[in-house]
Every structure is written in structure tokens, then in C-alpha cells.
Amino acid sequence: MIKTIRLLQLFCCLLLLSGCGKPLDLDSVRIFQEAERTFAQAKSPEDYLKAAAMYQEILDHGYCSGAVLYNQGNALMRAGQRGRAIAAYRQARRYMGPDPFLEANLAYAVGGQPPRHRPLIEYLLFWQDWISYPAKFQLTACGVGITLALAVAALFVDRWWLTRVMLAGLALSLVLIVSAGYDWYRYAWNVHGVIVQTQTIVRKGNAESYEPALTTALEEGAEFELVERRSDWMLIRLPSEQEGWVPDRAAVLY
User: Fold this and answer.
1) CB of 169 closer than 8 Å to CB of 147
2) Cα–Cα distance, 100 to 44 (Å, whole number)
3) What is the distance between the alpha carbons of residues 166 and 160, in angstroms, rounded to a whole number?
4) pTM for the full model?
5) 113/107 Cα distance (integer angstroms)
6) d(CA 65, CA 75)
7) d(CA 67, CA 70)
8) Do 235 and 223 contact (CB within 8 A), yes or no?
9) Strand partners, 236
10) Are the C-beta atoms of residues 198 and 226 closer than 8 Å to each other?
């Protein structure tokens, strides 16, 4: 019975850690199980940080797992690292798709921050957050493949309905390509970040000698988009479209 349970745990770990197509090694499975035990037995912020470091070790191996990022976010939140927890939750959202527990934890971590301005394309592609980032590319590849197969079949089989199905598949493939391309733009092309220190002053230039660019300092958990990086400073753009410079140590990027 015990062996059966352990095999079941191992199988669940394999499912949770599967992500970007890289072969899974048993060492990462062992680290995941150890991180789970550490999190379950944690009694102090230091214990939760230890669990978060274990999850990070798995991610450093090259696995893009929403489950690992979600668990890391929970550990960081318990450790009092709200900014880093938000970054982990945001990344988990890319790979997990819609999940009520993730959405609830992210909403709690974000707190009373003003909602992000949604561009028009996100209203047109209203399903963007319903499907995970990798799944969009998989659906796009399937759609293009099926459309290509229908186009080849239409060359040899003269059927009016086959041509119409092929055109419908082409239209759907184009929509999927735009959807996947937009995700690539907002996740791979644009770099996002979160402030991880309290009372971070945003300055007009990349040095402490410059005057503050904002009337108030940024609190931990404030989210932004990276505009430029210069030396040990980052030019950031806030959801309010305000820009300024903050030191590297004050934020994490993802």
C-alpha cells in the first residue's frame, strides 16, 4: 500500500513538473517532494523561504511549470515577501491558465492596487486569459496543420464543402496566430517587474542624486513594465503611464 502511494505521488509530481518539453530528471522530482514537505512543516518565515528556494532550484533547471511557480508564490507570501510572491503568481498564471485558487491568492497579494489598463486587443481577444501561454501555441500549431492537410486534400478531391471547411480552418488559424502572437508580445517581448522593497523612490535619472520623479514612494508589490536598463538602474513604466528610474535591488523582473 505504501509503495502504491509513493508511486502515485511520483506520478503526480511528473504531471506537475511537465512543462516545456525538457526531459524530467528524478532529482527535480525529489526536490519537489522535499519542498512540499518543507512547506507543510514550516513554522517560520525562514522555513517558507527555504521551500521557495527549493522551488526556484527546480525552475533553474529549465522547467516552466505553473504548479511549481504557484507553490513558490504561496511560500513567498507566507514568508512575507509579497512582491516576489506576486511575480511568482503572475508567471504561474501564464502556464496554468484559469485557476480559482491562483486567482484568489493573486488578488489577495495584489491588494488595493489600481487595475491595469486593458488595451482594445484584449477585449477583442477576450479568451486570452482562459488558455495558458503554451496551450495557445499548441492550438495554433494544430490549427495550421489541419488547415494545411485540408488544403492538400482539396487539390485532389473536388468537393465544394471541403474548400469551405479549409477556408474556415484558415480563418480560425489566423485568429489563433494573432492570439499566440499577442501573448508572445506581452510575455516574451515585454519585460514586467514588481517592487520588492518598501518606500522605493522613483527618480528622474539613473542615480541617487536625481530628484524624485513621483510625489510618493512606491510600496512593495507595485507592478511595472521595464522600459530600459542602464548599469544598476531600471527605467520603469507604471500602470498609470508614469515613468522613472529605480535601482535593480528594489525590484524583480519576470
Assistant:
1) yes
2) 27
3) 10
4) 0.81
5) 10
6) 16
7) 5
8) no
9) 226, 244
10) no
Encode pLDDT of 125-157 as tens digits: 988 888 888 889 999 999 989 988 988 887 888
- Dihedrals φ, ψ of 131, to 5°? -120, 140
Q: What is the rounded distance in angstroms from the CA atom of residue 101 to the CA atom of residue 105?
A: 6
CATH of 192-253 given 3.40.50.720, 3.30.465.10, 2.30.30.40, 3.30.70.360: 2.30.30.40
Q: Are strands 192-195 and 243-247 parallel, antiparallel or unpaired?
A: unpaired
Q: What amino acid is encoded at 79 in this protein?
A: A
- pLDDT value for 115: 67
* Identity of residue 40: A
CA–CA distance, 178 with 132 (Å, rounded to integer): 15
Q: Which three cell numbers stand for residue 73?
A: 508564490
pLDDT along the chain (254 residues), means of 10: 44 44 72 95 97 95 89 97 97 90 94 75 88 89 90 82 88 93 91 96 96 95 96 95 96 96
How would DSSP label each residue in 14-34?
HHHH--SSPPP-HHHHHHHHH
Which are the contacts of 154, defined by CB distance < 8 A and separation ≥ 6?
Answer: 162, 163, 166
Domain boundaries, the chain: 2-110, 120-189, 192-253
